[in-house]
Amino acid sequence: MNNSLLLYILMIPSLFAILLLFLPESKIRFVQWTALAGSLITFIASLFVWFGYDKALGGFQFEFIAPWFSAIGSSFHFGVDGISLPMVLLTTILTPLAILASFGIKEKIKIYMALFLFLETGVLGVFVSLDLLVFFLFWEIGLVPMYFLIAQWGGKNRNYASLKFILFTMGGSLGLLLSIQMIGLTTGTFDLVKLFELWPNISQSGFLSTVPLGLSLPTIKAIAFWAFVIAFAIKVPIWPFHTWLPDAHTEAPTAGSMLLAGVLLKLGAYGFIRLVIPLFPIESQRYAGILAGLATAAIIFGALSAFAQKDLKRLVAYSSINHMGFVVLGIAAAAYAMNVGDKGIIESANIALNGSILQMFNHGLSSAGMFFLVGVIYDRAHTRQLDDFGGLWAILPIYGAIFIFTSMSSLGLPGLNGFVSEFLVVRGAWDIFPLATALSMIGLFFTGAYVLKAIAGLLHGPRNNQWLQLKEINVREIFVIAPLMFLMLWIGIWPSWILNMINNAVILFF
Amino acid sequence: MEFVSIPSNDFLAILPEIGLLLLIGFTLLLGVFKKNDKNFLGWFVAIGLSLILVIKLGFLNPGSEQHSAWGGMLQVDAASYFFQIIIIIGAILTVLFSTNQNKFEFSADYLALLLASVIGMNLMAAASDLIMLYLAIETTSIPLYVLAGFMKKDQSSVESGLKYLFFGAMTSAIMLYGFSFLYGFSGDTNLFKISETISAGLIPMGIQILVLLMVVAGFGFKVSAFPFHFWAPDVYQGAPTPISGFLSTASKSAGFIVLMRFLMTTFSSNPQNWMVLVMILSTATMLVGNLLALLQKDLKRLLAYSSISHAGYILIGVASGSQLGFKAAMYYLLVYLFTNLAAFGVAHIVETQKGSSQISDLTGLIKSSPGLAFAFLISILSLSGIPPFGGFVSKILVFAAGIEAGMVWLVLVGVVNSFIGLFYYLNLLRTAFSSGEESEKLRISPSWSLALIICVLGIVVLGVVYTPWISWLNFASTNLISLR
Amino acid sequence: MGFPILSILIFIPLFAGIAILIFGRKKPEAIRPVALVAASLVLVLTFILWATYSIENAGYQFVEQFSWLPELGISYHLGVDGISIAMLVLTGLVVFTGVLVSWKINDRPEEFFAYLMFLATSVLGVFSSLDLFMLFFFLEIAVFPKYLMIVIWGSPQTRVYGGMKLTLYLFIGTMFAIVGSLAIYFVSPERSFDLLILEKAGFAASVQKLWFPFIFLGFAILGGIFPFHSWAPDGHVAAPTAISMLLAGVEMKVGVFAALRVAIMLLPEGARYWSTWILVLATINVVYGAFIAMIQKDFKYVIGFSSVSHMGLVLIGFASLNYNGLLGAGLQMFSHGVMTALFFSIVGMVYDQTHTRDIASLGGLAKKMPFAAFGFIIAGLVSMGMPGLSGFIAEIPIYMGAWQVAPIVAIIAIISIVITAAYILLTIRKVFFGELPAQYEASVHDISTKDKIAIGLLSLFMIGIGLLPQLMVPLIESGVNHILALLGGV
């Protein structure tokens, strides 16, 4: 039952990237369109997966297994379910848009585009991997193109930011790597489908014979759990591991920020859902409260920090921490429900997790859109300081409208996508962590505050005549933002097309 | 008048020496007629020696046989045979190196003296009687004293001859004193008889040890072992370079066979005494030789110290007192013959044309005479014990013997010493192979190239092919061991 | 016995070297082509070995045996197992690329290429030896080409010191190993230097415990074990480019390979007894090496110390004495060899044009030599254990092996990954990105096509094995299984 469609999806971007390297540097247009074509083909292929996925059947589909490192029991095992498929779709949608958004880049265009395509492979690999080691492989591979994108095409402080980004993430992954090794060693396999069965049920006797740590099994499991959590928490990022994020986002080039916020942050949350909860159900349940607390902190502090920013891009960056806090809150709620028999709680957890995953998708859309819009204005004005702007709506009416629309999605205006997912999370988490949920509602209030502050600072207020000559958003840029706006609206109005898919996988959790 | 009938065996035993004697006569005679063509004399002697070598190799190989000749004066066996061959080859190469040069008067006298010392060495290799032994040693030494001081106009050469004479005379006197004890206690001069006396317990232990010390002083001088090595650097430096090479190889080999034969026969009953003594000598010799070599600026002096240190390595083989040990020592000496003669040969060539033998004179050798530089490279690498050259396998054999005999610490001393040795050997190579300014090409006469080619071939062949020589050495070492 | 492919492999460079030495002076234009042809033949032959070695049958294959000195049990005995084949392929690659990047050597080229060929013979011989004496024989042949190449063509400031230090360390290490080997030779029931016979000798535990440190440490010095590692950076930095590649890429592997083949495989009980100490030293290697690399200001020293760090991982793999550890060590030997060869080749290319190795005074070179930057980045990623490249494939099993015996080692050693990432990324950024100093604007040009081929070939192997480890893993695995049988058979 090997289906190589996923393999193709992984390989197409990389193949196009390699192809790009052989094209002449001078033919900028040609390079750009080739890159766009590569990412669009990937997108179309992912649509085949989306529509080919049999919701009635559920579980992992489009599975592909090929030997990789059989000596230690690892293989190329790919497959998608209702959790990973939206993420795959998100990635394949955002990459062509990011590439389209970078048509303005002139410098070293070949490598720039190639890095984007490599990045796409890396990210998609994480989402479709069903092997722990292969998961880690793609997890780390994705860092490299991002590092170079920031370091080469970033802002003034790019060297510091890029190094901080990669070292934080790699450092965070060390514990993950060690735990992966230990798990693989103990169970003799890295295959996730098998591990979901084996690892949670491993017994003390079978364990100690291979890994003589001198510690008891629960302790080791708890340590491994935290190693996983820290690695993913850095990536999400969860407060207090978030400090790399504003630097990286601010310094990254526009398209880099789009993918970083839109897709890369999801990797961490995806890791929680795909690995941490199924592999460590007992620990997840035990420590879910701490997770919820951190999520609340992220929501509140993220919002407050965003509110304090004067730089528009930093503001959007902090908003990511705030929004991802909701994702984590939902995950925490789901974690709490593991192994708890109570039907009501499971019901709520189910809703929360659905909300989380949808929130991941939505945040991908809105943050990518926001970063793009910041990029659009920065390209023209070469500043991002809110104080420098004002009254732009009058000058750039179309841009202004789009900006407000996208901000509203980010804010969670009912009728747009953000509202649906945040509502689901809050509704689900309320039963489980009432205090945390209540506190995060305060965070939600500040979310409104900073979004409005951004709108006010940029579009309203006294007109700064310095900007009279600013050009209106052009057609290419509208092509970038239009699909995002369409999806925001569509999910806001009719979320069930995607929720069905998600729920299909989520119900298997409990 | 009645002729004493001499057994043919006895004749055969000294046939090469008779040949050498004849060669001396012819050389002196030719020297009168061919005063102006010295090189002709050189070739004549070299060819004569080669003929003797061929006869010896072709007809006089004793195989595993051993017997005594001349009423127990000489022992004819594979060991003496082997060493005589080493000595003759050494002499051939020395003669070849001695031709074509301007440092001293290369004459019939020179060659005759050299041949006379070869006779002495050949007899040393076979001697099994105290009288014979002493006579052979003196026959060897006296011509060498003269040869060492042969450059009459050169102060240092004369000094070196004198120094060699004084040291030699003193150590022979001590050795002779030791011999007198042996004769006094046993009433016999034959080594086997003396051995019987000792094993019968007729000589007190104290006297035995005293004799051992005295005799070893004599032999230690010949092999330039610590503490009888002081002459070596000065003499090697001052003497004509081919003679230095000859002293450090053939003469040393003769010293070693005497040492081994004497120790194995006379003191066979309680070998631990001399084994301990030789171990101590070995350690001290290696260390002194190598450490002092580090300080040298003159190539010949450096080679002198290195030669001392190599005596130390060979003594490891001797100290093990086993068949493997003797085999190793002999193989070492065979390799060392070619190796050190090549090194001294290069030193000689450089010295002849640059006027001095400072190490710095080697600079740029690779540019000016690449062939010579590679010969030097090979000999120095062989000295350092690097494959595929003979020095490697001989060093391994010596160490193996030491380990087999349980003397691991001695081998470790040897290891540390070869480490120190490598340091100064590599420095030599660096000098020879550094670019330096363009200097004129060194003139290398055909006889020198022939000698160098023989040496290099010897080093390489001995370093790669082992079986024929080793099986030959089996007989020799068995002979020595069975003397016990 | 069949076709003597191994002998041919070993002696091709030797004869090529001798020919170059003899005729090179008269026909200088033929030197490089001859060297290149010889190196290509070696490379092709190693590929043939790789392709035709039967993994199912495992064991030693392509065996050739002739008596050499039967009396002492010495024979000319060649044969390769999976691990040796990997090492031979590595040697083929490094020699081939070494010749390519040395194309511009103009000072006494005949000697340079001849010595390079001799060095190749030496390492090929060690990897194919099945006789202990022969192994030492080939091992020690390397002494003089190494030394002379460093002191003649090395970097003028340190070559005398660095060359001497390197040669002496390696020599003393080998000598200690020789002493230990002789000692076990004399206690073996059937006095023989044949490794296959010695493998079955079944030495008494006391013998093994006594002599293991001599042999293992002796060889491990060649692999740069702490605290005897300092020759490595000094020597490698002083050496000319091709020699740095060969020394760090292959010669260090020779050391650990011999430590495996002789010390661990012949004295498994000793290995078990001393494994804790090796682990301790190797862990220091890994972490200390990485830290020291981080504070270096000299481009080449960074790489020199990174080798120390990575070789520590090989030793950890050995000392874990289990399937994973040994498998990883075998892979790491190959991966590190290719990686460090690539590193040194690029350092050389940069130095050739800028005449400095001071990191602070370099910058922006990616503009001028993008392919070199690409190669350095690939090597850098391998060095930090980036998944998808060969370094990860090697490190994962090593860490897993360490987990099984001493988890603390895995936990400490893994820190080196982040440190490595930090210094590698900083070096990449400072040397290849940022501002190009004005004086290099005109003087620095792109690297030659030959250099690009070298970089491309080495990179290809690192990426290929990273993505498709099956290319190399079964080969190493077959060798590891044999070692495990010896370890278990005590």
Descriptive account of the structure:
The complex is a heterotrimer of chains A (510), B (484) and C (490). Chain A has 21 helices and two strands. Chain A is mainly alpha-helical and 510 residues long. Chain A has one domain (5-509). In chain A, strand 1 (61-69) and strand 2 (74-80) form a beta hairpin. Chain B has one domain (9-482). The model of chain B has no long low-confidence stretch (mean pLDDT 88). Chain C contains 21 helices and two strands. Chain C has helices at residues 5-23, 28-52, 82-101, 109-128, 132-141, 143-153, 159-187, 195-199, 205-222, 231-238, 241-266, 268-294, 299-320, 323-354, 365-368, 370-383, 390-405, 407-432, 438-443, 449-467, 473-488; strands at 61-69, 74-80. Chain C has a two-stranded antiparallel sheet with strand order 1-2. Chain B binds chain C through residues 366, 370, 374, 377, 381, 384-388, 392, 396, 399-400, 403-404, 408, 411-412, 415-416, 418-419, 422-423, 426-427, 429-430, 433-435, 466-467, 470-471, 474, and chain C through 21, 25, 67-72, 74, 107-108, 111, 133, 136-138, 140-141, 143-144, 147-148, 151-152, 160, 163-164, 167-168, 171-172, 175-176, 178-179, 182-183, 185-186.
Short description:
The complex is a heterotrimer of chains A (510), B (484) and C (490). With 484 residues, chain B is mostly helical.
Question: How would you describe the shape of chain C?
Answer: globular
Give the biggest beta sheet of chain A: 2 strands, antiparallel
Helix content of chain A: over 70%
User: What summary fits the major beta sheet of chain C?
Assistant: 2 strands, antiparallel
Order of helices and strands of chain C: HHEEHHHHHHHHHHHHHHHHHHH
- Low-confidence runs of chain C: none
Distinct helical segment count of chain C: 21
Which whole number gives the mean pLDDT of chain C? 90
Question: What shape does the CA trace of chain A take?
Answer: globular
Q: β content of chain C, as a range? A: under 5%
Find the structural class of chain C using helix and strand composition.
Answer: mainly alpha
pLDDT < 50 runs, ≥5 residues of chain A:
none
Q: What is the element string of chain A, with H for helices and E for strands? A: HHEEHHHHHHHHHHHHHHHHHHH
Distance between the termini of chain A: 27 Å
What is the total tally of β strands of chain C? 2
Instruction: Walk across the major sheet of chain C and give the strand order.
Output: 1-2
